[in-house]
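Run ribonuclease H through structure prediction, thanks.
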Amino acid sequence: MPLGWYLAQGLYPLGPDSSDDDEGPCELPDGRVVCGPHGLVVCGKCCSDYSFMDEDVDEDKDEHEAHSPASLPLGGMRTQYPSTNRVLADRSPPPFSGTEKRRGTGRAFPTKFCPPSPTITPAELFAGRRAWMRATRYTHRNDPGMLLLLTDGACLNNGLANPKAGWAFVHHAGTGTDDPDGVAQGRLEAKGPFGDDAIQSSNRAELRAVIAALRFRHWVGENFHTVVIATDSEYVVEGSTVWAKNWVQNGWRTRARAPVKNSDLWEMLLGEVERWKEEGMDIQLWRIPREWNGVADAAAKKAAEGHDVDKWTEMIGMAV
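Sure, done. The structure for ribonuclease H is below.
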């Protein structure tokens, strides 16, 4: 994806040139970069970590000023933003504070979300529309601390030659697939979160979408106590709430003693559930009909058409 596509969604800030914007990073007189809202180099609430830029200042301040990273590069991609003439570094960013990749141990599992009626839609039930910065989150109509995220995965030529998978999730109320606001999406990587080679498949894309949604923001910092993931994937809902309990006990093997497929993503997903549980937030999964998930579905299919991505990449949403 081009840099402008990510910037249009507020996926990361514009960089030191945005020092007058209290929602982005600020460059201090000594060259250090901190988050605008809180003045921190590493900020859990903003999901930002600019500590890697301190090394550039110490080693060569002139080089830092000429080629300062705009902010956190996604997968180490190199590109240039015309209005600032600054270049993103050819390297992956360091882990965000509190969002390191971790394997779940079985201490916590997501639960199933039970709507009051099987016919009520996500738009009807999560009609609270609570504002955060310039975003309008989908919140439960009776509980503003309950957030809805809609996820989906897609794979072109699934199970055939040359499959290409993509994932997407809806994180705030945009205007649909023609407007990128509110939708985050990406290609499924050729390697898993822990460096293992992986296949392109719809099941992996579905799991990847949920993981990306959970890691996108410091949701507790927006005062949410529960995140409800709405997905049309039975594989994701049943796998994470039921099957995974047996897989953990059996050392990630099935009853037939075969290795569990996509175990790296399952472990990563459970790791996210455990991490949020430690911060006092619960994760629930709601299986919805495919026709209720049109925006995420269309975005995932579009993402699957994009360029191949080799290494695992992070998509961290800044305040938008």
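The two ends are 19 Å apart (CA to CA).
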